[in-house]
Every structure is written in structure tokens, then in C-alpha cells.
Amino acid sequence: MGMRMGVAWLLLLTIGIFELDAVYGYVRPPPRKTLFVPHAEEDADTPQQVHISQVGQNMMRISWITDNSTPAKVSYGPSPSANALSTTGNTSSYNYLIYKSGEIHEVVVGPLNPNIVYYYRLGDQPSSPTRQFKTTPSQFPIKFAVIGDLGQTDWTRSTLEHVNKSNYDMLLLPGDLSYADLYQPLWDSFGRLVEPLASQRPWMVTQGNHEVEKIPLIHGTPFTAYNARWHMPFEESGSDSNLYYSFDVVGVHIIMLGSYTDFDSSSPQYKWLQGDLENVNRAKTPWVVVLIHAPWYNSNTAHQGEFESVEMKASMEGLLYQAHVDIVFAGHVHAYERFTRVYQDKTNNCAPMYINIGDGGNREGLATKYIDPKPKISIFREASFGHGVFEVVNASHALWTWHKNDNDEAVVSDSIWFTSFSSNPSCKQ
Ligand SMILES: *[C@@H]1O[C@H](CO)[C@@H](O)[C@H](O)[C@H]1NC(C)=O
Ligand SMILES: *[C@@H]1O[C@H](CO)[C@@H](O)[C@H](O)[C@H]1NC(C)=O
Ligand SMILES: *[C@@H]1O[C@H](CO)[C@@H](O)[C@H](O)[C@H]1NC(C)=O
Ligand SMILES: [Fe+2]
């Protein structure tokens, strides 16, 4: 009897485990440890934390940091000798509590030819190593890598390795970069961590809550480190703030919005956005893409009802809808979720598609709990680390894929083809 009971239990247990496995076949990975990338044992004149970002149609801003005061000079050209041209720029630094940043150099180079490799050297020391970057193409296709809430952990490293293999043209980051969270040396570490990628392809970012770093009465100015280190091309888009800007790349108009600065209908950001959307020429840029940090649609239990999500959506959703924005990427929630086309919480075939991609790999880990049952407008949701690839094939078609970090392999776990509003006569104004 006892024996038979034992066998029955074993059987039940086996079936039970089998079923559990079918339901929870993928074991959610725990957070991984925070990395700190130290300063290499080099002299204080050595350029570090190099990253580049596109300025206008055919210029590139190159940013780097040295400990010592060195010339903000770039020698560059299409051949490995990197000496055809040279340009100088500006140097700045900032203080944050007892921390003083290194010398932050910025040089805008160009005009550059599309879709070729440029070689460049920083500073004026002959021993300065030659780096290279590739400019974006001048026509479709173009491939964007999209990662939110990147941070600097072993998961971040894994995500970056996968992105590196994707042969992307430009990276888009919807906020939360370093997770320095007031401890400024982590900004330097982040700069070193991303340099191998960010010095080779333009990285276009917008800010998240982790970039604010304001301490009432002690450090009252928000975004000090972010603005000093990640100068985006806001001046060129008529914006008065590094916290929101836009630019064109191939046939895509990309708008970076600021979730942590004013967005009400009387705010400078709102007025700028209104003007920017009015000036979009669909014949020139058939696609319009928007990035924000705090998502407007979200069926994860994390970050529900936050001011930046609810009020920014209430203020600006109509503008994006009327302008036929094709897609809105957000971060903040540490998971992946894709919605259908939606306006005012309802499926609407003439509204933007919303994708939350806040799963880059930061130290806070994944947001694993979801609102049950799944709302109809949510098509795919999963709490795993990963990155997205948005490949715009031509004026009408784009392929979106989400690549999950399954252990350390990048596995395509969600993919969808979709079409632009400019190619859809039923949604034209
Ligand atoms: C350098 O800074 C000045 C003052 O902020 C600005 O007017 C100028 O355009 C900058 N030059 C470059 C090359 O960035
Ligand atoms: C990126 O890929 C290149 C070529 O495949 C490789 O040499 C390089 O080490 C990679 N870098 C990183 C940071 O993964
Ligand atoms: C755009 O790309 C899609 C997908 O590859 C293709 O089916 C379509 O024919 C292309 N359109 C044009 C105008 O080339
Ligand atoms: Fe966030």
C-alpha cells in the first residue's frame, strides 16, 4: 500500500513538474551584478568614454573625456590614416557634490558621406589610437537597435554583445542610461562600458528618471551629468532643451521626448512638439517614430498610474494621433510589451503602435507581474532581458523583432511586419 502510494505520488509529482514546466518553461533570470569599468592604466591625457551622435543630415558629434586638459581636436577621414581633415570643438566639465568631472570634449565633424566608414583620432597626440565609425545610409533600408533601461550589469554586457552582432546603423535609447543614481563615477564607468559600440555607430538617447539626479537644497539643477555627457542635436531641431529634440535619418523622422520635464499644453516642450509635427514632410520622411521613457500603455503591474505616464499621455496623445505617428517606443518598465495600434485605450487602426522595451539589463531586475487578464490591446508581453531591432525596409514596410537574452543567446521571440501610415490611404488626413 505504502509502496503504491509512493509510486502514485511520484507519478503525480512528475506530471505536476511536467505541467509546470510547460507553463513556466522559461525560468526568469535574476538580476546580475553591477559592473564597474575602471579607468585603464593609461595616462591622464588618454581619451576615454567615446561616443558619437548624429547632427543634422550629415554631421556627427564626437564626445570623449580626458582627465587632463587636452585639445578638443579630431583628425579624421575615409582612409585609415585618419588625417584628411581636422576640426576642433569645445570642452566643458561639471561639479556634482564633491565630484568633479573630467574634461568633456565635443567636436562636430562633417559634412560626411553616407554609409561609409570614417577613421578618426582624438586629441593631438600622435600616439592616440585610430577609431572608426560608420555613417548611416542615405536610403532604405536602415536598421535601428532599440534598448531601454540599459544600466551596467552582466545582463547589460550580454545585451550589448547581441546588439553588436546585429549590424545596426543607429541605436535608439528611450531613457535610463547609467543608473549612476547620484554616484558620478558610475557615469564614467557607463561611458567606458558602452564605448566599444557607441564610438562606432551613432547613439541617440533620451532621458529617464535615473538621469534627473536632482537633490533638493543640495544639488537643485536636474540632468547635470546627462546634459554634460550626452549632448543630443536639440539646437538643430529648434528645441531649446537637450531633453527633447528630433532629427531625420534616411526616411524616418525621429522625435525624442522628455518624460521628466514639462509636457502640459502650455509647456515649451508641447509647443515645440506641435511645431515639429506640423513640419513633418511625409514625402521626405514617410515614417515618424517617437521615443518616451515612461510608457503611456502598460499592462505590467510595475509603474502603474505614474504622473509622467498618465499626464503626459493625457496632454500629448492627441498630437501624436493627429500627426499619424507610426510607432512609440518607451522604457521604464523592465520587461517587453507590444500593443496593437491604440488611441485613448481603444484599438484604432489609424493610431500609433506602442512598444515598451525597458529590458536592457539594469541592476533593478525584471518586472515580472502582469495585470490579469491581459487587456485586449496588449498583444505580446514578457518579462525578459533583451533588445529590439527596428528595420525599416522601405517607405511602406518595416520589420520589428524583439531579441530575448535566453541565458546568453539572443533569441528572436516576437516579430511583426508593419506598414507606414504614409502608405495607408485609409488613414490619410
Ligand atoms: C562651443 O560652445 C559655444 C558656446 O556654448 C557655442 O556657441 C559653439 O557653437 C560651440 N562650438 C562647437 C564646435 O560645438
Ligand atoms: C563586436 O563585434 C566585433 C566583430 O564581430 C568584435 O570584434 C568585437 O569584439 C565586438 N565587441 C563587443 C563589445 O562585443
Ligand atoms: C517594401 O518591402 C516589402 C517587404 O519586403 C515588399 O513586400 C514591398 O514590395 C516593398 N515595396 C516597394 C515599393 O518596394
Ligand atoms: Fe525608468
Please render the helix and strand layout as text.
Blueprint: H1 2-23, E1 48-55, E2 59-66, E3 73-77, E4 85-88, E5 90-92, E6 95-96, E7 99-100, E8 103-109, E9 117-122, E10 131-134, E11 142-146, H2 154-164, E12 170-174, H3 185-198, E13 203-206, H4 224-229, E14 245-249, E15 252-256, H5 268-278, E16 287-291, H6 307-322, E17 327-330, E18 336-343, E19 346-347, E20 353-357, E21 378-382, E22 386-392, E23 397-406, E24 409-419
Parallel strand pairs: 11-12, 12-13, 15-16, 16-17, 17-20
Antiparallel strand pairs: 1-2, 2-8, 3-4, 3-9, 5-8, 6-7, 9-10, 11-22, 14-15, 18-19, 18-20, 18-21, 22-23, 23-24
Helix pairs in contact: 5-6
The structure holds 2-acetamido-2-deoxy-beta-D-glucopyranose (3 copies) and fe (ii) ion.
Task: Note down, in words, how this protein is organized.
The strands form 5 sheets. Strands 14, 15, 16, 17, 18, 19, 20 and 21 form an 8-stranded mixed sheet that branches. The chain has a 6-stranded mixed sheet with strand order 13-12-11-22-23-24. Helix 3 (185-198) links the parallel strand 12 and strand 13 (203-206). The longest helix is centred in the N-terminal third of the chain and has 22 residues, at 2-23. The chain has 429 residues and is of the alpha+beta class. It has helices at 2-23, 154-164, 185-198, 224-229, 268-278, 307-322; strands spanning 48-55, 59-66, 73-77, 85-88, 90-92, 95-96, 99-100, 103-109, 117-122, 131-134, 142-146, 170-174, 203-206, 245-249, 252-256, 287-291, 327-330, 336-343, 346-347, 353-357, 378-382, 386-392, 397-406, 409-419. Helix 5 (268-278) runs parallel beside helix 6. The protein is globular, with a radius of gyration of 23 Å. Helix content is 19%, strand content 30%. The chain is built from 6 helices and 24 strands. The termini are far apart. One 2-acetamido-2-deoxy-beta-D-glucopyranose binds next to helix 2. Residues 149, 176, 208-210, 293, 332 line the site of fe (ii) ion.
